[in-house]
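hi!! sorry for the late reply, been swamped w classes. u asked for the two structures so here they r. pasted raw, havent cleaned anything up. first the sequence of the first protein and right below it the tokens
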Amino acid sequence: MHRAIFHSPLHDIEVIVKNEGVASVQWISPEYSAKLTIICKLQAKPSQMENIHLNDTSKWFEALWNMKTLPQIPDLSFDDATEFQKNVWNELVKTAPGTTITYQQLAGLAGSKNASRAVGSAMAANPITILVPCHRVIQTNGKLGNYSGYGGDETKKWLLELEANSAN
């Protein structure tokens, strides 16, 4: 396992990779970023596979921040997820940047059309934010819902606007 800090125009991001793929992407506070910088300096060098996943993730974020066409999402690792969560997240990564999908629509795509609330729980448990784009999931009435990432709904709005203005 290897941790890294990625900088965005909005907040810093903690990325954790394993040999299998990206295991976690989380927005972090400036205070935690300062502590994590020290931790990152003390850790062992990444394995060859971890380094590949870090490089792929870096390229993906650079494309997003610069509003360029997004490359393929790096390999993801959903180690501790339930089968339902994996189904939901795997369907969600198929949504196009700059678009939205309702909890109900996502539940249907995941094979459980009446499981909107469970989809909401899967979004709250999403360990790989941005890459698994829970910010694209909205309520049936068009409202944003509650974004649990650092910065809350303002971060969600910013991501949706950034994607809408990108080259995708």
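now the second protein. again sequence first, tokens right under
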Amino acid sequence: MYVNYLHELRKYIHIDQINIPERVREHDAQLIEKHQPRPARTASQDKPALDTQQFGVTLKFIKEQHGGEVIPPVVKQCVEFLKEHGLEVEGIFRRSANAHLIKEMQQKFNEGQEIDLAEYDINIPAVLLKSFLRELPEPIMTFELYPKLMNLHALNKDAQIVEAQKLLLTELPEENYFVLKYILEFITWVAAKADLNMMTALNLAIVFGPNLIWSRNQASIASLTQINSFTKLLIDHFEELFTK
């Protein structure tokens, strides 16, 4: 993958999770100043969220606007489609998709339009699911839980499971808990087909971890390793951790 500017990485990861040297950031800023016009404000920056909006709004907002349904419609549609058609696809969730097409589809979902995922490449719903998580105003694991999750790495595996279960049950908002549980249950199904799709629990943790957990401030590479390790724990011990 090649990008011209650091901000282009935001389509794939939270760049705040990478400790980028200050000289690199300064050079990037100079390139943008030299070669790119200042971006215009978008409609989403100036207008309130649509009642049908699903990308870039809180889980609570989506629930309130969709009759109390906890699982956002776009998440449910993507997961159910991938359950039926994507479990055995090699490299599912590791492959990218046309960024312009993804933005178009996000806009359609936000406007409440009906979309037939069968008309698109199988990687489209996979990317949409990751982008939904990435574009939440706050990570599904919440900013408040971030330092506590980072501290788990110092514990042995059994203690990690006990403490993680407690954090999930007592400190994660209800909407976050059930959406996370729904998505992770599906991810365990993907991992169960690793002999066909090559997506082991570790590979899936690397792909999903930075989209589930990030900090308010720039994190180190060590933190990213801990994020992926915790995400793998969620996948490997799903049944023990999600008991509600």
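hope this helps!! also noticed smth abt the second:
DSSP finds 13 helices and no strands in the chain.
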